[in-house]
Design a protein that fits this description.
mainly alpha; two-stranded antiparallel sheet; 1% strand
Length: 300
């Protein structure tokens, strides 16, 4: 009885606590956490651009044209006297908005197509997979360029929805393949047979039982595709098919007459290029670490 009483009266602090998910991720994936910190920095820039940027990104100052980096202009100015640092900060809004929306749109449509392909099988699977094969045969940048050229520009709430559609389209077949392979393993599980025996419709089984079980690969692919979408948006803007002046965008800052000043004003190309490189590297680093952390086959 004394032993029982002693155990019962033990302080709550003596009971070991389970480590938090964040703490576990930091311990197991330190590089991924470093990438996440960089991503959060860009998110902070995007949300707080009005307070972080020292100047209006579209304000022209002909008296400060091509000023070298100094205390007044941290990253210098461009050929119109616009502050490069302010344009990079505001450009994070464009990069993250296009990147996140494109990745989520492409992954969501691809997940639905892949789940339907793996669940129904037969002719449905054959038709969807042939569509996926055709889509995968086109290079990503070429497919995005064709879609942008055909659809043109359509701005809704300050966002070019056609640009997002053009970037999201190449992501659909990639996610569809991954969702199909995951669905084929889930369909063989007993709870799917139980759902069919209970009389649930195919649409309910796909939406309520299959799609929630592929959320891990979905999240991994979203983070990976955000990096690709940022790079695609910068490439299209560089070619004149994406964001147009005077909207701040990293790819747009590298295009046009900026290349004419690479000798006299190299900061006009250096800092936007570093912003793109760091963002893509951070999202890829975080995505790879998230895959290793969530996939039990990669652990150990």
């Amino acid at each position: 009885m004394a032993n029982v009483a002693h155990v019962a009266s033990a302080p709550a602090d003596a009971i070991p606590k389970r480590p938090s998910l964040v703490g576990t991720f930091i311990k197991q994936q330190p590089l991924g956490f470093a990438g996440l910190l960089v991503v959060l920095l860009y998110v902070t820039f995007a949300l707080g651009a009005r307070w972080i940027a020292p100047y209006d990104p579209e304000a022209v100052d002909f008296g400060a044209m091509l000023s070298a980096p100094d205390r007044e202009h941290l990253f210098g100015t461009d050929q119109y006297g616009r502050d490069v640092f302010s344009r990079i900060v505001y450009g994070s809004r464009t990069a993250l908005a296009v990147g996140i929306l494109s990745a989520i749109t492409g992954c969501s449509l691809g997940a639905v197509l892949g789940a339907a392909s793996g669940y129904f099988g037969g002719r449905t699977d054959a038709i969807i997979q042939r569509f996926v094969d055709i889509m995968l045969s086109f290079p990503i940048i070429v497919l995005a360029m064709v879609v942008v050229a055909v659809l043109g520009k359509r701005v809704v709430f300050g966002i070019d929805v056609n640009l997002i559609a053009a970037i999201a389209l190449p992501f659909i077949p990639k996610m569809a393949r991954i969702a199909r392979s995951s669905t084929l393993s889930i369909v063989a599980m007993p709870f799917i047979d139980a759902a069919k025996a209970a009389g649930y419709s195919s649409s309910r089984i796909v939406l309520r039982h299959i799609l929630p079980n592929i959320i891990a690969p979905y999240l991994i692919m979203v983070t990976a595709f955000i990096a690709q979408a940022i790079l695609l948006e910068a490439s299209l803007s560089f070619l004149g098919l994406g964001v147009t002046e005077p909207t701040p965008a990293w790819g747009l800052m590298l295009s046009g007459t900026s290349a004419d000043f690479y000798k006299t004003a190299p900061w006009m190309i250096l800092f936007p290029g570093l912003a793109i490189t760091l963002a893509v590297f951070a999202f890829n680093l975080f995505g790879d670490s998230l895959r290793d952390w969530l996939d039990p086959k990669m652990k150990g």
